[in-house]
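Try this one yourself first.
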């Protein structure tokens, strides 16, 4: 009787272990495109995205959430309060997230309009007091470090899925040389992590890497690509927004690694449409399925924004010899 009980218990444990492994290797990461128009014009769309994440966090095994920037349209307290209240729902549910700063999330734009604020626009771009007041480093439960103390403008985050380590680096808009160098140091120190670079501006609407600094940033996305993205063998994804609407560019790094650069932004389409970029990972199959889904309309875009990344390779931690 006892032997039978032990045998059956062992079988149950093995079966559960297999289920846990499968679940851990299959997960979904929601990515917010620019939400500025939703915050400014249709708050319900923004709210519906959080409703959906919270309703599906367990069934889709959501380990992490990202936002490509331009959270708000104008840098005023009212819009930051609106955004903060929704992210507070993720805080309460214990769902970690990272936010890249868009140009509209800074003092580069007016407090109540999208025109350039008075003064030096490049300097204003680095003034992010309201963002950091509403989203201090202590609020990001997966944040492990940052370029400037007390500021999440450039920061890194980690999470794990089934024994696979992930590193998310958020970079400021058209970054300065200092954050670029810092990000490289972080990636080198996390060589057993799969790197996702989260930045507001990278691809153009035609799917090319932007070669300008938008007229008021520091270094262009092409500069960042050449001096950061392509240099490290564990870079896997670059996520961005800023321009309309969806694009994919496959890159090959200096070490032969393949990385995928994804654009998603629908701010000029029906207030953004409430769309989320959903990345469905299946690490055993080596695939990532990408789609744009709107919880507001219960609709998936039937266009080129849906695709599958095949042969998606991940770095796995080395097991020390006994």
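Now uncover the answer:
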């Amino acid at each position: 009787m006892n032997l039978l009980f032990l045998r059956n218990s062992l079988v149950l444990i093995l079966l559960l272990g297999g289920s846990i492994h499968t679940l851990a290797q299959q997960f979904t990461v929601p990515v917010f495109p620019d939400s500025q128009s939703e915050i400014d014009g249709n708050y319900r769309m923004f709210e519906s995205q959080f409703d959906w994440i919270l309703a599906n966090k367990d069934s889709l095994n959501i380990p992490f959430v990202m936002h490509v920037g331009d959270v708000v349209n104008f840098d005023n307290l009212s819009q930051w309060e609106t955004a903060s209240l929704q992210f507070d729902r993720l805080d309460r549910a214990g769902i970690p997230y990272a936010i890249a700063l868009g140009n509209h999330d800074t003092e580069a734009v007016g407090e109540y309009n999208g025109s350039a604020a008075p003064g030096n626009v490049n300097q204003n771009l680095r003034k992010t007091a309201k963002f950091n007041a509403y989203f201090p480093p202590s609020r990001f439960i997966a944040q492990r470090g940052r370029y400037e103390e007390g500021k999440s403008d450039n920061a890194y985050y980690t999470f794990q899925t089934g024994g696979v380590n992930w590193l998310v680096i958020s970079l400021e808009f058209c970054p300065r040389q200092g954050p670029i160098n810092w990000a490289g140091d972080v990636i080198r120190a996390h060589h057993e992590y799969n790197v996702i670079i989260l930045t507001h501006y990278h691809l153009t609407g035609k799917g090319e890497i932007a070669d300008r600094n938008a007229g008021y940033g520091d270094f262009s996305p092409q500069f960042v690509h050449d001096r950061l993205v392509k240099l490290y063998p564990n870079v896997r994804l670059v996520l961005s927004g800023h321009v309309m609407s969806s694009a994919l560019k496959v890159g090959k790094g200096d070490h032969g690694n393949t990385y995928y650069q994804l654009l998603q932004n629908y701010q000029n389409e029906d207030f953004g449409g409430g769309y989320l970029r959903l990345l469905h990972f299946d690490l055993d199959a080596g695939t990532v399925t990408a789609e744009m889904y709107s919880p507001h309309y219960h609709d998936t875009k039937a266009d080129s924004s849906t695709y599958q990344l095949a042969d998606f390779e991940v770095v796995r931690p080395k097991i020390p010899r006994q």
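Discussion: The chain has a mean pLDDT of 92. The helical segments are 2-25, 36-41, 43-56, 77-93, 121-124, 129-134, 177-189, 221-227.
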